[in-house]
Each structure stands twice: as C-alpha cells, then as structure tokens.
Amino acid sequence: MKNRIAIKDRKRFKITVIIVLMAMVVIGFILGNVMGTIPISTKRLLEVIMNDDGSAQRMVIWNIRLPRVILGALVGINLALSGAILQGVMNNPLADPGIIGISSGAGLFAIIILVIFPEYQDFAPPAAFCGAMIAASIIYMMAWKGGIQPIRIVLAGVAVSAIFGAGISAVLVFYSDRVHGALTFMNGSLSARSWPEVKLILPYTVTGLILVNIFSEKLNILIIGDDAARGLGLNVEVTRLAFTALAAILAASAVCVVGLLGFVGLIVPHSIRMIMGNDYKYMFPASALLGAALVMFSDTFARTILSPVEIPVGIVMAALGAPFFLYLLRR
Question: What is the spatial distance between Cα 87 and Cα 163, in angstroms, rounded to a whole number?
C-alpha cells in the first residue's frame, strides 16, 4: 500500500513540476512581449494581439516581438529535446548538440548555403540536417569500441566540433565580405527574426514533440543497457539510429533559424533529470517546457539589459552554460 502511495505521489509531483513549467512559459511569453525599448502593459498586449487598431504598438508586437518570442520558444524546445535524446541514446549526461559537435556539423553546412550560395537558402534546413547526421555518424564511429563509453563520446565530439568549427572559420575567411551576417549566426541570435523563421521551424518542432512522446518508452528501455534492452525485444541499433536522426533534425532546424546556440541541450535535460528522474514519459514534455522558457527569458534579458543595444542570446546562454558544464564535470 505504501509503495502504491509513493508511486502516486511521485506521479503527482512530476505533474506539478510540469504545471509549474507551463506557468514559466506563460510568464516568459508575457515578459518577452511587454519588455523592451517601448514598454507595453499586459492589458495593452492582449488588446493589440486581439484587435488590429493600426497603432505603433500593434506593429511592434505583431511584427517584431511576438514572432521573436514564439521563435525563441520553438528553438528552446528543439534544442532541449535534442539534448535529452542524445543524453539517453549515448548514455552520457554531458551529451549536447553543441558540445559533441552536431550543431557544428549543421552549422557548417548551413553557413555554406547562407554565405556561399545565398540564392539557395531554402535548402539550408536539409543541408544542416545532412551536416548534423554526418557529424553524429562520425562521433558514433569514433566512440564505438565494443560499445559506447561516455568519455569516448565527449572526446570524439570535441574533436569533431573542432574540425567542423575550422571549416566554418575557413568559409568566413574566404568570404570575409559577407561575414557580418555570419557573426550573428556564430553567436546565436534571435535579432531580426520574424514569421518566416517561425514557419520554417514549426513543422520540425511539432513533428519532434509528437515522435518523442510516442516513442518515449523505447528510450526508457534503451537507457537500461544494450543487453537488457535486447532481452526485452528492442532492436538497439535501429532505435539508437532513429533517435539520433531525430535529435539531428531538431538541432539542425534550430541552427538554421538562430545559428549556433549552445548549452540549451545540456542545461535543460540534466536539470529536469535531477528534479524528476530518468522517465522520458515525463522528461520529454518537461524538457520542452523548460527549454522554451529558458530561451525566452534569456533572449528577453539579452535584448533589454543594455537597451537599446542587443546582446546575442548565445552569449547569455554561454554565460549560463559554461559554469553548469564545469559543475557537471566536477561531479
């Protein structure tokens, strides 16, 4: 009887955490829209969203702040889910699309399209996905030696990230006349992003959310160990490959619209794991919510702390993520 009560309490606690995270997302959405060079009250925010009164505030909200805040939430969701998947698939709490090189692979292929072939920018998402999958494949092959070991993944990821980072630097050197737009890409920024970027990333976010929630139990089985997973009838390699491809798609879609935004996929899943445990049935929705809230809050801080000057949100995330990464290494 006590065990049943404890299980119910744990479930109730996890649901409570998810509700709190939903509230954080709502608060982040409101703050992102009301704060800025032109302050707007919450009441006025609702009025200009619901009614087109032709005012300057309506233009600011509808054309600048609203799409930017929504895009920040979608990017946060994609990167958080990508990090959660990679940490489970690779059995490594330090796995993150940025740290292990997947974002660098996506970034190199995306920046080749955006800088060298700007007339084909519609092909940036599939190019970024190819780069992310190539990076993931290389890391997987380098780290495999009779099984996957966390330390080998980190070392292989650092090497792959350095290689692709060198490629990005080479592109910027040879095309220095186009470097301004690439600098915001390298630092991760939501500046000047609007509805076209929202429309670009939204299908990937929706698809990712659906798939991770449908197949969360498979990842729960995978993290108990390859031998045990095979004993339960799971095709380990196919499952790992499918989840890796999904993580690459999510990371690549985020890279395409915001650039190289690091540490979201590290901070969010690990924080949720410390609070709620390893059950991906709850971890995926909680990570998506915290990822959305984190990027929205960070971007609002980045564009208001030195207003009217904006700091790229990637710099804020690096300031948060680097100490967190060192903390994890220390543990």
Answer: 22
pLDDT, tens digit, 9 for 90 and up, residues 237-284:
888 888 988 998 898 889 888 888 888 998 999 899 989 888 899 999
Q: 3-class DSSP state for residue 192?
A: coil
Tell me the pLDDT tens digit for each residue of 70-111. Answer: 999 999 999 999 999 988 888 777 778 887 788 888 889 988
- List phi, psi (to 5°) of 189: -145, 145
Could you count the other beta carbons within 10 Å of the beta carbon of residue 182? 19
Distance, CA of 13 to CA of 21 (rounded, Å):
12
For residue 174, give the CATH number of its domain: 1.10.3470.10
Phi–psi pair at 144, nearest 5 degrees: -80, 125
Pull the structure tokens for residue 206: 């929706």
| Residue pair 198/70 in contact by the 8 Å Cβ criterion | yes
Q: Which residue has the tokens 């004993």?
A: 231
Q: How many CA atoms lie within 13 A of 27 on its CB side?
A: 11
As for how many domains the chain has, the answer is 1
Residue 126: cis peptide before it, omega within 30 degrees of 0? no
Domain that holds residue 109: 2-330
**Which residue type, as a one-letter code, is found at position 14?**
K
Fill in the amino acid letter for 33. Answer: N
